[in-house]
Design a protein that fits this description.
Length: 134
């Protein structure tokens, strides 16, 4: 095991699970730390969401609590499903309007969210395999 990526498949999947969870958690924590929750709620309110502040807090808590559960390896498939819904909703409500690219060739597009969705699919599939009796 002296060649790149220097990790077994099982350890690589752990890195993917923990790293992806960390990305969602960071997004939520920065939303709280920067005080952008009211701005996000105003945006959802303008789209017609009832109780937009409640929606933003629900999204934020799912990202933090779900990310923590995913890091701990608990309820991974359910957590991946919840985070998948958040990423897909972000594409539909926000990112698709900005195009595909996030940086360099665009601003705020869908590519990052699509990458997160692909990561979540692999994480959920790996968890399913790990839990299946042999």
């Amino acid at each position: 095991m002296n060649r790149f990526p220097f990790l077994s498949l099982a350890r690589s999947l752990d890195v993917l699970r923990i790293g992806t969870a960390g990305l969602f958690m960071a997004h939520a924590i920065v939303r709280i730390a920067n005080g952008t929750i009211p701005r996000f709620a105003d945006y959802l309110g303008a789209l017609g969401f009832p109780q937009p502040l409640l929606w933003v807090w629900a999204i934020t808590l799912v990202e933090i609590i779900g990310g923590s559960l995913m890091i701990a390896g608990r309820w991974v498939r359910w957590t991946a499903l919840g985070l998948f819904a958040i990423a897909a909703g972000g594409i539909v409500l926000i990112h698709a309007k900005a195009g595909w690219f996030v940086g360099e060739h665009g601003t705020g597009g869908s590519e990052y969210s699509v990458c997160l969705i692909l990561c979540l699919l692999v994480i959920a599939a790996a968890d399913e395999q790990r839990r299946r009796p042999r």
